[in-house]
């Protein structure tokens, strides 16, 4: 059967746009659950290993997640230089925590995820992702709404990482891509701290979300810098936005960064080093222009509505 | 019908790997032809404009081709600084010529494409791509086999651009991704010249082709530098390899480049400027490692066999 | 490439239901046109020959159209016994006319189709379908709205065949599946005449359309008989409804029918003979029950809305 | 997301031919297992309920399985008239046994299935199919190879039902579609007995398997009769072949059959009654011709190789 030779019999179809579908052949369904917040699959795919899928949106897979999680975590950590306390908002797979915990300077990590059932499934089925990060005594996982959590703490954090699912309508995350949420994050960020947001695709047909997130963040933080990584199972490169009270040098010296990583981390990075960081921070012209020209700001009254639709009513 | 609201009724499915399909909804078929060398479609898609498809492989589309053609052309031109004579091997859409002709220093461009029927179809249906480049008196289009052409000329070229379709089995191009072909190109490259090759995807699951092309080129040129661009309708980032007798500075000063482009080109670049070039040249660690560790060289006896299969017998 | 070995690169996807897609690999696009009424493709497929596609709905293809057109035409002709004048409403491909013209008793055929551009494309690209029926002097093709045509004639017809595209919303046909339209047809049907309607799929998940059409026809004609044929490229069996002032014998003697066909037609039938007709008229129990229990009638005020959506505004 | 409105995110693609795919949207994966013999999924689909999928081939689903299981079982039972002992070869879902057990004359049913893991999964997840047939004391399930079983028994059976998965290469069943196997079945068939075989699709593009099975059976039994049912989730009608030492009347009196069913069964049939049986036995001409003209016979040396490929090595 074709399935054996060149394709699969089960396919997970993700609509990148209404006219572009990225379909991954599924060789095995490891877990399926309709949680209180979303519909979850953990599947094994033909080429890129095991994947987590929430509300029909590909979250990450073992075969290329390092292209997402390393860029999400390390630039903020590097620019801080010696992060001790790190707050992760979202991050169910445990891979964001895994990268944070590579830093020997880190003393305390709190990870807030709204969906305990997803976290449990990832613990059980995606050990390649978390690599036992959940067992590290420095990590504390709290099942809670990130928006509420930020109101209940006065603790200050060196690095805050917003690792949320895309802001699709009826999904659990769209309120967390707004000015109000970013202001709550700023309140608990240490003065020397860095706040980083996973910030959507940077392909020409879908730049609006990223550009508006960047614009929204400029109303909250004095320094806002976009960067991107060549993720592949998302079907296009992914954007991140780093913000701080501190200046962000887009032309850092690669050799200095390599030295910092060697001194302060336990190693193991696959894609990110000094050269890679220099590359990621220097974006193509059209992307910088789209960000610079954007005027609209996301608020709770006018939140983003990313293409797609979740299962929350 | 679903077609009207969220999708299309006709889809062009490209197998990225045997288990990953990128499907583009086709709203109109502008041209179809079984040429002497390959099967050609020119189609209109829902999100990314008009596309050229050869032997079932997406070549380029109007909506994001600038992410391919600008990186293909300008780094070589910039590093040369004042290119006068440029040779394009392949490049049927005319978009590579379009970018070359932006340089006011350019006096002569020869474009060698094997498939005159494809060139004609592009002239007629893809004016957004060529933007009348074919009418520029500096351009001479020759319908011929690139491999043969290189043997019949002793002219020297400042920049040679290898803009060929992927080296799929039975396709018309696989022989042009070999040491022997690269040596023929070197023979007609001016001493100060630069030779650049479109060099396949740089996604983790498909790095072998790019890495072996880089290794193969190191057996022919003293300086070989990979770089990549965040193409999106290919479903992943694309790689290029720049080679020369001259050194290639991977940390050029962006402001100097912007000044050069302003002085020597007629402008109009959308994605490439000094900052973008700095970004593209500084690759992720895993990609540099894969290139450095590769040992195999492509030859006519052992050419590449990229995933896919053409129609040439 | 997969396309060469086991699949195609272009696919025509038809949503049978919102959760079931029948996809046909397209090897060539012979014609594409956005007509005044609908969107039309004529394509070549891998297994079943050339196909006509209107508004994303598969109409018929050369590889199995005999399973649709023979059952559509011959039962009405056979039950009449000696049809001289036949009216075809719709039937753009010319295959319905082809079957009608096999009857040597036939003196006059009028075919009313709303879309002259579709008829022209079929003439040019689908000769396997019409087999030069359009050249038969007995056939007169009128490009007009069937609904209007019926009001403008007082001529009486021995057999009237309603060969219309499915009644999808915004398509050109949904008004022609109503009590009012059927009454217009009855007015011009000869007393000994038979009226037959292509009447949608008879699969368990989609029985409503067929059952309501049958119910609607019982409000207009005293005798109404459903039957079905094992069409395959539609992805399920197809239903037809035969109606008349005359009684319809569902257990005809096959040998008598074979003799009638031999005497009165020029032969060439592939699927329909006496035995086949006996089989088609004797439907499964669940289908007869669904028809018997249906209570709703389609009217111009409440026309059918078959799954799918057309392009007419 | 499209998944919520008109389609699914997970799809089970079945290649009907290399160029025709029937894709069913999967809303839930109930069970997945790589058994000793095949790869098994039990899934929930959007339109047609729960389905069993083996080696990528759709076996049956709750929404239309009555169109397969009733025609498979009852014609043989009806023609026998008073079956007491029934042997089922295959039939893992338990739906074939369910239909057999409707007959009050039945005293003993033995069901031989090679794959105990599939039977267990069906028991657990497909109660709509077996409807507790497994609890009926008249039924004895034996996990064994049907080919071997037939050699080890001298018991005679009134009805033998071959309900095997399609004879794909490397699947567990292809040897059971051969002259040798049919001879083994004949040895244990009572003189008044009937043997029925599920016998592949009867669509024009795939008639060879059915026609050759019919031809093969004519070398073993004096009376061989094909019939078909309008199954829909298989994407085309399905064929069966009934064989016996006894004559098979293809024009039975429907009323007599209805009376027999009323007297001897507990009722509950949805599609099959006297009228339906009359319809099923009277096949289209092209199908009868293909069967009549076939000359090739399947043997263990030259078994069928149905399109598709299993996982058995």
Describe this structure in words.
Four copies of one chain form a homotetramer. With 313 residues, the first copy, chain A, is of the alpha/beta class. Chain A has two domains: 10-61, Spermidine synthase, tetramerisation domain (Spermidine Synthase, Chain: A, domain 2), CATH 2.30.140; 66-309, Vaccinia Virus protein VP39 (Rossmann fold). Chain A has helices at residues 2-5, 66-80, 95-100, 116-125, 127-130, 146-151, 179-187, 207-218, 254-264, 274-281, 285-293, and strands at residues 10-17, 20-34, 39-45, 50-54, 57-61, 85-90, 108-113, 139-143, 157-163, 168-169, 189-201, 223-229, 238-244, 306-309. In chain A, strands 8-7-6-9-11-13-12 form a seven-stranded mixed beta sheet. Chain A has a five-stranded antiparallel beta sheet with strand order 1-2-3-4-5. A two-stranded parallel ribbon of chain A has the order 10-14. In chain A, a hairpin with a 2-residue loop joins strand 4 (50-54) and strand 5. The longest helix of chain A is centred in the N-terminal third of the chain and has 15 residues, at 66-80. Mean pLDDT of chain A is 92; it is low at 1-7. Chains in contact: A-B, A-C, A-D, B-C, B-D, C-D. The interface between A and B is large, with 57 and 57 residues. Strand 2 of chain C pairs antiparallel with strand 2 (20-34) of chain D, so a sheet runs across the interface. Chains A, B, C, D: Its EC number is 2.5.1.16.
């Amino acid at each position: 059967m074709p399935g054996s030779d060149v394709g699969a019999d089960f396919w997970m179809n993700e609509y990148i746009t209404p006219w572009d579908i990225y379909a991954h052949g599924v060789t095995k369904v490891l877990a399926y659950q309709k949680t209180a917040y979303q519909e979850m699959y953990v599947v094994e795919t033909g080429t890129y290993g095991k994947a987590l899928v929430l509300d029909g949106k590909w979250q990450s897979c073992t075969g290329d997640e390092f292209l997402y999680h390393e860029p999400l975590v390390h630039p903020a950590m590097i620019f801080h230089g010696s992060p001790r306390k790190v707050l992760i908002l979202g991050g169910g797979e445990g891979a964001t925590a895994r990268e944070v915990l590579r830093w020997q300077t880190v003393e305390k990590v709190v990870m807030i995820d709204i969906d305990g059932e997803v976290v449990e499934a990832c613990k059980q089925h995606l050990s390649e992702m978390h690599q036992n990060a959940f067992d590290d005594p420095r990590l504390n996982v709290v099942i809670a709404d990130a928006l509420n959590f930020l109101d209940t703490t006065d603790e200050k954090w060196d690095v805050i990482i917003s690792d949320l699912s895309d802001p699709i309508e009826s999904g659990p995350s769209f309120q967390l891509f707004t000015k109000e949420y970013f202001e709550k994050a700023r309140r608990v960020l240490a003065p020397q701290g860095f706040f980083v947001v996973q910030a959507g695709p940077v392909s020409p047909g879908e730049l609006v979300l990223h550009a508006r997130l960047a614009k929204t963040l400029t109303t909250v933080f004095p320094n806002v810098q976009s960067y991107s990584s060549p993720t592949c199972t998302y079907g296009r490169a992914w954007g991140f936005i780093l913000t701080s009270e501190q200046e962000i040098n887009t032309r850092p010296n690669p050799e200095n960064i390599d030295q910092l990583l060697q001194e302060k981390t336990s190693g193991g990075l696959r894609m990110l080093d000094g050269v890679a960081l220099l590359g990621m921070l220097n974006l193509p012209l059209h992307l910088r222009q789209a960000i610079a020209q954007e005027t609209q700001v996301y608020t709770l009254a006018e939140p983003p509505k990313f293409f797609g639709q979740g299962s929350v009513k």
